[in-house]
Each structure stands twice: as structure tokens, then as C-alpha cells.
Amino acid sequence: MIKKGSLLENVIRLIYKQSGFAVQNNVIIKGYEIDVLATFENKTIIIECKQYENSGSALKNLIHQWKSKNDIIGADKVVIAFYGEQPSKSDYELAKVLGIELWDTDHIITMLEKSFQRKSVREELLGVIRTTSLFTFMKVIFVIGFIGTLIHLYLTKPYVAIGLIIVIVSIYTLTSKPKKK
Questions:
Q1: What is the pTM of this model?
Q2: Secondary structure of 70-139 in the HEC alphabet?
Q3: What is the pLDDT along the chain (181 residues), one digit of tens a residue?
């Protein structure tokens, strides 16, 4: 017997597979069943597929559940692919706040059509994946330290600090790429 969500899972699997992702269905990770697991290079996306006739509070609960589950799993991105009744505006807002991407029926169809354009849709599927690497953290620490040094210089030797700021802005302006119109 085919379970109710299996057709949806296969459609989602096809979207990611056509876009160059390695894809697995019904994988257990840290005790949780993942409907579709998609990986590309070192990025992991978990997709929960649901088919509801009436979303009500079920979708809100599902969003909260997958936020909590992903805190344990640690995937780069969570997508809830939802077939059936259209999610509400508050569902989308909640998902966005919790870092979950919602795919309604129309979006699933659009992504399926786009998936045959492999590379262009891959970037969209990866979307904004949180990058909290040590390198990013070190850049933030460097910038904070540099700003602190500039403030100290400004308080003790204002002309030196202003000169340094002018040099930095000039170098940035000369080395940055012009924006395309």
C-alpha cells in the first residue's frame, strides 16, 4: 500500500535530484524520520512533506516541531512542502521567523517546472543557508576590534583617525566592483 504522502515525497525528490542534489527518501537522522534528505556539496536540506485537506493549527504545530527537531539534527535548511489547503499569512510569518521555508502547492509546481533548468534552480533551492562558520565569527571580531581601535585613536589623536578612515574609504572605493545597471 502506498502511503498518502509518498507521491508528494517523490515529486520533491525529483525537484532536488533534477537540480543536481544527492537525494534520499525516508532517512532516519538522530532518531527522526526525514521524508526527503537533499545534499549538495557540504549543504544539507531536510524536507518534510505533508498533505492536508485542512491546515488549521496542524501546520503551525508542524513548523514548531521541525524547528525543534532541526535544533538537534543541525541541517542547513528545513523545507516543509505542503500540499492541500493554502497556508495562512501567519503560517508563512511564523516559518520565516523560525528559519523554516514553506512550499505551498503553487510553489511546488513552479519548482518542479524550474528543476529541469538544473543550475539556475539549484541556487534557489539552496537559498539563504545560515553560515555561522569560525571564519565569519573571526571577521566579526576583527571588525569590532578595528572599530574600537578607531574610536580610541579618534579620542586620543583625532587627525590620525580621520586620515585613516579616509585612506580606508579610498581603498575600498578604488577596489570595489562597479554596480551593473
A1: 0.64
A2: HHHHCCCEEEEEEEECCCCHHHHHHHHHCCEEEECHHHHHHHHHHHHHHHHHHHHHHCCCCCCCHHHHHH
A3: 445 457 888 889 988 988 889 999 999 999 999 999 999 988 999 999 987 665 556 888 899 999 999 999 999 999 999 887 788 888 889 999 999 999 988 888 888 877 766 656 667 677 655 444 555 555 556 666 666 676 666 677 776 767 766 766 666 566 655 555 4
Contacts of 17 (CB under 8 A, 6+ apart): 23
CA distance 121 to 115: 6
